[in-house]
## 1
Amino acid sequence: MKISVIIPVYNKAEYIGGCLEGLLQQDFDDFEVICVCDGSTDNSAEICDEWAAKDQRIRTIHKENGGVTAARRRGVEEAQGQYLMFV
């Protein structure tokens, strides 16, 4: 795995689908996307789960709300890529 893209997600149901769609349109395919759902109260986590079910490059991690830094840290712990990127 070359690249891990980490997305901390908190109450962004309106935007997360477009974000994931844009990432998956890349012509480079040696990457993973890790959505770290940080205790959202909207349906952001469900949207991430739906995308993960459709594409094996996407993983969703669910955690209690701890803030963006904690979500990023959890994504880094789970990442398998040689390089890390944050969205």
## 2
Amino acid sequence: MQEKIKQLRQLTGAKPRANLGFYPTPFYKLERLSEQLGINLYIKRDDFSGMSLFGGNKVRKLEYLLGDALDQGCETVFTYGATQSNHAMQTATACRRLGLHPILYLNAYVNPDENDIRANMLLDRILGAEMHVIQSEPGETEQQTEQRCFQTGKEHVARMRQAGHKCYDVPMGGSSHVGAAAFADGYAELMEQCQQAGVSPRYVFCATGSGGTQAGLVAGHHLVGDRAQVVGIAVSRKNDEYEAYCAELCNKALAWLGSDARVSAADFTVDRGYYLPGYEQPSEAASDAIRLLARTEGLMLDPVYTGKAFAGLLDWVKQGKVKPGDTVVFWHTGGATALFSEKEIVGSINREG
């Protein structure tokens, strides 16, 4: 496996990359919670990716995405997300570091209060990002509002390009083949740390939203050839084609890296059982998971992504899908700024029980 990790590192190392994060991110065992659950539970702290105190896993993708943007001579970067998007905020942060102009198109799942701007939106304002908030219209579904947000942003990109500006268009969550490739490299990093710790994971759990993180992790797993199963816990509604979409994204990342390897939808495990009542809508299971990790290990999760993903992991243990004594890695993707967002997103985390 060591030789395969080396080969994967050579593939990713040949691509343009901006120096933004702090790697490798920490990896260690959660001793108290492992004893409580009867498993060997490790955590991959990609919430420590950097480059600011408000970091998270998107920095990994942005190293490759903005490295590609700089390589193409771009001056402006567009991206998309919810008003409290971790990715959008981190894109603005990275752009400022690199001297690029960030333009954000933000879909209002929860309407922000202009008199009380919070969390990632507050950081976006401090960073001076150009923000366009797309409000939902009467009778419009969340998906329709999201598509209108994308379309409006892409029309803006087209106008700027026509005016002679070089723009780099980053999809929601940074989930292009370039962004996904970053997590193939991240998987190699994890396996190096597992070897150093003398462990061989049976499962690697992560939150999955726009798909790029899980696609990259599966690409890395496929190239390394270890025994782990990558489990994505969906944090929003996914249609029946989601696994096929992730596989296509994974294959494009593999091809971009110069690998002949390919995967199929069958290589993706996506559990849709924990996202309700919906994206950016809190659940009691996620709130319980956040409190549990905080009170046993002093670590914070968020109500949108990692809280729901960790709730899924805990339920897999409870159901016996994860067996006693299994070695499990939880990929902490960050996003704790959501704990300071609107009450509609935070939910009931603050109760004492």
